Amino acid sequence: MQKARRGTRLPSSRNSERLSLTSSRKGVRVNPQKNARVTGVLFLITFIASIPALILYGPVLNNPNYIVGAGADTRIYWGAFLEVILAIAGIGTAVALFPIVKRQNEGFALGYVSARVVESTIIIVVGIISVLSVVTLRQYLAGAAGANAASLETVGTSLVAVKDWTFLFDPGFCAGIGNGIVVGYLMYSSRLVPRYLAVLGLVGGPVAVASATATLFGLYEQVCVWAAIAIIPEFLWELSFGIWLTVRGFNPSAVARLEDESQ
Q1: Overall domain count for the chain
Q2: pTM value?
Q3: Which of 29, 71, 128, 246 is the 20 to 30 Å CA partner of 23?
Q4: At residue 21, does pLDDT exceed 80?
Q5: Does some domain include residue 196?
């Protein structure tokens, strides 16, 4: 042992595993590049699930008479199923990112997990339940003897309004704050991805929140040209972030710096 200390330097396990982050309390080793790619794939899944789900919901969202009509229930069920996948993928992005970004700022990392949990388990799920409730009422009450069509239409419109409000708070406030501002800041400050990419989040997040606030206070409709333009930077940020992590992963030098600072 004395010879080893004075002579040739023994290989350092820290250097050979430089791109691993270890929890000091539990000794759990995390592969940052694996987490990066899992995060990227989950971000892309949120796109793959959310856009078709909105299209599939079309008959119930756009037809006030759906609850008393023939209905397209199977299509609605598929939309709900895709939104369940969306909710799971949303939480998954936060779980996969947390072990890495907590080394940069644990408070912001916890904030992102909280935002994703609220978005997925409360806002998205409430929207799913409201839409499925319209389907259930149509199936069991629309053709029943003595059913009041006008009352059913009122109830159906109210449930659709709940779904519309969840759609405002989900991509507007939750995604704008969580994915845009919080993740944008964490990526910009840590340099885990190129800063020019993170700037999209730092710009897109506040713009999305501002647009949602304008809609909330009636300055313009939820579905209009201004709202569509306002969401573009956030949309591009989340899409490019997912693609970058899936293809390239994290910046190795930034991961190494986080490892050094956590020692």
Answers
A1: 1
A2: 0.86
A3: 246
A4: no
A5: yes
